[in-house]
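Hi there,

I know you've been waiting on this one. I reran it after we fixed the sequence typo, so this is the corrected version. Both the input and the resulting structure follow.
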Amino acid sequence: MLGPYGYAIWLLCTLLEAAVLVCAIKKNALHRYLLLNVNMAASVLVSIARYNILSHCGFTSKEYLYFYFYSDSVLTITLYLALTSLYSHIFAELKAARYIRLGTVVLLCGTALFSYGVVHQSSSKLVTHFVVELSQNLYFVGLVLTYVLWAAVLKMRETRTRLIQLILSTGVYFSLSAGNFALQNLYHSHSAFFGYLTPLFGCFLPISWAYAFWRVPEDARLVPARLAMVPR
């Protein structure tokens, strides 16, 4: 059963996710970063739906557990799509949107097939195991894609500060989530510790995105290539 800490972090994350949408609307960034905002809107709706199911069915009910894992998989996919949409911003001048969309679908399907291959021998709860495995694998794929995207930012000398902020914060979140999954798989006995730590990770992304929309102007510029220079 969730305690005061769990409910407090849950409420805080939901409010922060709603704040991202408010900041995006106020700063005219809703359509420009549409898939990022779709992910935040979906997160808010899922949080409301989860609380409704929790209050009616209970924390340990099958209804809540199934909805939690399935909705988490949906949110992971929307976050993956949001990340790939940032590729379109970086490669907009190359007119590579078609290839990015194709690559996004192929990689998502490949990850899904790999996840199915991992769990297909499970005779019980195959679908549940699949969605959990898919979420975990998409976090690792997202982590790799973020590093690839950051390399492209440096290579192409991208200077849009808000876009760079969004990419870096998304990369940090994928890193935290992927590392969290890996550590949980290694240290099952420390589940209580992860129960306190994991919810905090969910607050990082909406905080950083809200900051990027609210505090960083769209026309702000910097030179990220300097970050890769090592002084001699």
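Quick highlight: The two ends are 56 Å apart (CA to CA).

Best,
R. S.
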